[in-house]
Structures are given as C-alpha cells and as structure tokens.
What we know:
Chain A is mostly helical. Chain A has ten helices and no strands.
Amino acid sequence: MSPQPEVTMAQRKRQLVANELSEAALQLLALKGFDTVTIDEIAATAGVSKRTFFRYFASKEDVVVQFLADMGTGMRAVLASRPIEEQPSASLQHTVWVSMAACADHSDRALRVVQLILRTPALRARFLERQDQWRDDLAAELAQRLGLDPDTDLYPQLAAGMALTAFDAVLQRWSGSDGAEDPAELTDRAFATIAPALDSVE
Amino acid sequence: MSPQPEVTMAQRKRQLVANELSEAALQLLALKGFDTVTIDEIAATAGVSKRTFFRYFASKEDVVVQFLADMGTGMRAVLASRPIEEQPSASLQHTVWVSMAACADHSDRALRVVQLILRTPALRARFLERQDQWRDDLAAELAQRLGLDPDTDLYPQLAAGMALTAFDAVLQRWSGSDGAEDPAELTDRAFATIAPALDSVE
DNA sequence: CCTTCAATGGCACTCGGTGTCAAGCAGTTA
DNA sequence: TAACTGCTTGACACCGAGTGCCATTGAAGG
C-alpha cells in the first residue's frame, strides 16, 4: 500500500519549508519594503534559522525572483518547438505569449510577485540579469534555427533583444494595470510594432 | 592675476583622490577578479582609508560603472537635439552613434572598463540597471517628440528598448574585438536591421 | 593669531552571506 | 532494542560591504 510514494517524506518537508519561507518573504517584503526587512526576520517568521534560509535560497532577492528561474529555459524550449518555416516574428511572439500566459494563469501570486519586482530596484536588477541570460539563450536558438553565425550576424542577438523588450513592455503594462489589461492583446500590439524588423531578413 | 582660478585647491585634490581610487580599483579588479578584491585593498592602494572610499563611491561596483553616469542624460540630450522632421530610426541611430564615439575616443581607458563590466556579472548587472534608466529617459523624450501618450502607446518604450538593444549588441562586438571593429559600421549594421520597425509608425 | 569648514581616519555597528560542527531524527540492518 | 547511516537543522564564528559618529588635521580667511 504505497510504501514509497516516489517522494520521500524528507522531500515533502523540504518543499513545505521552501513554501513557508517564500510566502513569509513575499508578505514581509511587500508590506515593509525590501531593505527594511532582514533575513533573520523572514526566517523567524517562517520558523527556521537564518542559516536554514540560505540552504534554500542563495540571497534575499532569490526568494522573490526564483520562480522566474526556469522561465528562461522554458522560453528557449517553446521557440525550439515552433515549425522552422514560421516567420521569426510569429515564433517569437508565440514564445512571449506563452510566458505571459503562464503569469496570467496563477495571476493571484504572479501579479504580486511581478509588481514587487518591478517597483523594487534591487529586485528589478536581478530580473534584468535573468533577462540578459534569456536573451543569450534565445539568440543562440535563433541562430541555430536560421543557420546564422552568431559571431558575424547581429540579427540573432537583435531579434532576441527586441522580443524581450516587447516582453518587458507587456509585463510592465500588465502589472501596472493590476492584471486588468489582456496579456494576449498587449503582446499582439507590441509585436505589431516590432515585426517589420524581425522578418526583414531574406 | 586669477586669485581664484574658479576651482579651489580642495576641489582639485578631491578630483585627484577620485582618480587615484578609480585607477587603483580598475587595475586591481581587472587583475585579481571582482570578488577577490576587497575595498580595504583598493583604498589602501590609493593611500586612503576604507571610510574615505565610500565618501567618493557608493559601492564597489560604482567605481567602475560611475563613468557611465551621465551617458544617460547625454543620450537624451542628443536625441532632443535632432530635428523633429527626422525619422525616429535616424535620430536614434545618431544617438547611439554619439555614445559609441565617446567610448571609441578615449578607447584606452573605455575599452578596459567596458570589457571588465561585460565579463563581470556583478558589474554587468549594474550596467543593465543603468541601461534600464536610459530606456525610460529615451522613451520619455520620444513620446514628447512624437506627441504620443506613453500610457497608451507602446511605441516609445519599444523604440527606446530596440535602440538600446542595438547599443548593447554593438558595444559587445566592439569590446569583444578589442576595439578592432569599427563602432560606426557596427551601428549602421544594427540599425539597418532595426529601422523597419522604428519607422513603421505613420 | 584665531576661527571656520571641509576632508580624513578610526571605531563601532548592522546586515548579508559562508564554513564548520555537533545534535536531532528518519529509515535500515542485525 | 541497539547500532549505523544519511539528511536536515541550529548555533557559532567569521568575513566583507556599507553606515553613523566623532575627534583630528590642515587649508582658507578675517
């Protein structure tokens, strides 16, 4: 009768502590501001020690930004899954659209997190850092798809940068409207502006 | 007989200490890596105390990134100085071109600094932060020039983002080639790709 | 000569972050 | 039940970044 449910109890407990920590951090940071809240405070609220906090998260910023971790590899995977015949603008638009949809899905938590990130300089900096890595990933994938040499052609890097510029703009509007504006429609509008540059390669 | 040469000796000394600090930091950081060098070390090399270091620079990253400080306001000023009839792509291209030219001018120092920034994660993060502010500035200037409402139109933000994407790509190539590639030519190529999107507004 | 003011150095302190170690506890084997 | 193993935890010491405070110095100025 399910002696080993594939996940040991230790693993479940670990996940539980991570959630506890994450939730405590989010609440405190949103309430009191990023730099007035100490890690001891967060850890104490979650009922663990400061040392344990750092066994789950690498830094104070990471508690908030961590949920964006695999979004980068996710974006590259989505882009890679598009048909090769598709126009770059369409492939990239779909890629951004999927990420926005992921946010809008659990908009309860995602919206709070995004708003906190965008209005907190230290967190926004980490977010930009992540985006920078995503750009490299997308550029590499684009170069491969189009058979371009990323060392001579500027296109992959520029196209990836434009797509993420669109993503950033859409995310900003979406969070600025408290989730009221439609992510899909915003994405459409942004790519309507950008597309002429993305597809101008022959 | 110029009793007050407009600059007091205290001011000159201040500038001198700043240079000393900046030079010591650049040399040590490039030599030993960003995180293995302590601020005490930098200060000692420059012949001052750690406390004095923080009277000149807000953080360890600032010693390196500081020289980019007014580049942002500079870019906005350049954009604002372009004739209004000019196509946005041309105005923005010129704006980026001026910044690159500023780098290429004192390429002795600028190249070292840029290379250090781009290959050091902590410094690159600060650089991205700065760029983020520049984007806001450029977007605001664009919106004003074109009579657009930045709260409804996505164009200003997107156009500014694309221009800075181009700037980033060009800077990366330039520093990657140790200054061998021509900044002006790189800028031309980048904007050749981007321009169709920038001028598609009617 | 005396005053004023800015720059400095030293010191103590907070906080983020890390290495280390001993203790607690689940699961396993005898 | 006892012993062993492996993982998680808390406590402690420690380092470096960054700040507040105060006493000292030295240049400028009356």
